[in-house]
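Q: Could you fold this chain for me?
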Amino acid sequence: MAIEFVFIAVVMVSIIVLSIFLYYVPMFLWISAQVSGVRISLVQLFLMRIRKVPANVIVQALIEAHKAGLSDVTRDDLEAHYLAGGNVEKVVHALVSAAKANIDLGFKMATAIDLAGRDVFQAVQMSVNPKVIDTPPVTAVAKDGIQLIAKARVTVRANIRQLVGGAGEDTVLARVGEGIVSSIGSSESHKQVLENPDSISKLVLKKGLDSGTAFEILSIDIADIDIGKNIGATLQIDQAQADKNIAQAKAEERRAMAIALEQEMKAKAQEARAKVIEAEAEVPLAMAEAFRNGNLGIMDYYRMKNIEADTSMRESIARPATPTQKQ
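A: Sure. Below is the predicted structure, expressed as structure tokens.
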């Protein structure tokens, strides 16, 4: 029993040691590399494990690059790119695709694009197969005041040299929308735009909208144009309503001023009547004083009464008769 226990213990320890050895010294991965023509030593694979670099990823990338004839891809460069946070597999895939498509893309440029946060493999594919971007509806107004709603399809190709630091799709769409608005806004009539929608594409393409972006615009096609509101008529209606409100405000101001002037005149008239009544109240006193002083005789008094009666008669004759008086 003791011998069997020792044998089992030795076997288990051997298995554990062999597993640890194969983990740090991946023999099968080394054999695969040697068979594929990639020269790499067991020591280098062991050091990759120590540096916590996935040896299988590096070796597979080296095999792919070797089979594609990429001589500028080395193990140190791949390890450095992985440790910098890059995606080694996508970089190698992109380099192989670029080589097959005769696209000038070096290892340094590919790693720079990858570290910049862009998908370098997708960029290479987009260089080979251009991408179509649909713009959102763009609203613009022609000079005749008619609103047009246009949709465009922009065919772009990735510009490898501008992927690092170049603007993205949002900038391209914004520039295309601005160009469509400018083109429609400079048209004399909306009918001209509807008759020749390609004029928008030609004008927008002349502006070089892909400058400073990560894309190269190949074509801009107007997919649809719809007629919107009559903005010119709406603005005229709004202006007329505003003018009407201003005129009404001014008329109300003049009316208020007229009422104030009328009230002021009435107040002055009442003041004048009060003064007349006050003056008339002093007439009897003045007449009495004139009688006492002998300045007014009885005949003068009767003559004055006759004049008042005559004046009253003339006023009654001149005053128009009311309906009750006519009956």
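A (continued): The first helix runs from residue 2 to 24.
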